[in-house]
Each structure stands twice: as structure tokens, then as C-alpha cells.
Amino acid sequence: QVQLVESGGGLVQTGGSLRLACTASGRAFTDRVMGWFRQAPGQEREFVAAISSTGGSTRYAESVKGRFTISRDNAQNTVYLQMNSLKPEDTAVYYCALDRTYRSLDSSSPLTYKNPLSYEDWGQGTQVTVSS
User: How far is CA 34 from each of CA 22, 89, 94, 131, rounded to the nearest angstrom?
Assistant: First the structure.
């Protein structure tokens, strides 16, 4: 099992930036797709971004495309989410997650990589609050 720990959340004004990090320990995660999800109060957990095992492919939710960038440093066992031009509607708890299988992101359907059930290990989450 992999332990995932998110960091980097906080309070920021509209238009500001934050960089989230997710560090893995326990066993190697470099052979799996990694995802970022978020959950606002009273809302379901929603997909934000995913990155392939090598970092060569990425996918984004339409709501964050062009503003957020997912990346990974496998040597550091860390996945990042750079968030720019933040909006109040980005306010949520952000979670990173590890794909439960050895899946190619390039050949995966959005129904798969956007589905929280496709991921087996989750961090505890980090709060992001964007004030208007």
C-alpha cells in the first residue's frame, strides 16, 4: 500500500496561485497514473487532473484547463498541481490518488480516469480556499 500526503493548500485571493504537492511513500508509485480530485462541502468528489506514469500525458477537467498544471517528479515520489488564476469556485479539499491498476492514460476513457473508483490509495486532503 502507498501512503499519500498532500501539502500546499491555504487561503488565497481570487486570481492568486497555489502549488499543491503529493508525496508518496510505502512502495513505488512511479508505474501508475496519479490523479487530483477535489470535494467542496455538500458536493461529490470531482476529477481535477491526471498524469501518466512517466508524466508524458496529462488530462484536465474542463473547469481547470488552462489554469492548472499537473506534473510529477518520480525521483522525488511527488506529484504536483500548480493552480493559477484561482476562482472562488475552486474552493475545496484537494486529494491526490493512485490508480488501482497499471493503466495507460493515453488509452483510458475519461469515464475511467475521471472516476474516483479507479483509484485505490488516497491522501488525507489539503484545504484550498479562494476568497472573492
Answer: 10, 23, 13, 28
Phi, psi of 27 (to 5 degrees): -160, 170
Quick check: 125 and 97 in contact, CB under 8 A? no
CA dihedral angle for residue 110, residue 113, residue 114, residue 119, rounded to 10 degrees: 160
Give the chain's count of helices (H) and strands (E). 1, 11
Q: Residue 97 forms beta bridges with which residues?
A: 35, 122
CA 12 to mean position of chain CA atoms: 18
Phi, psi of 99 (to 5 degrees): -55, 140
Query: Cα(51)–Cα(20) distance, rounded to whole angstroms?
Result: 14
pLDDT of residue 29: 81
Q: Of 72, 84, 64, 90, nearest to 32 (Cα)?
A: 72
Per-residue model confidence as pLDDT tens digits over 3-26: 999 999 999 999 999 999 999 988
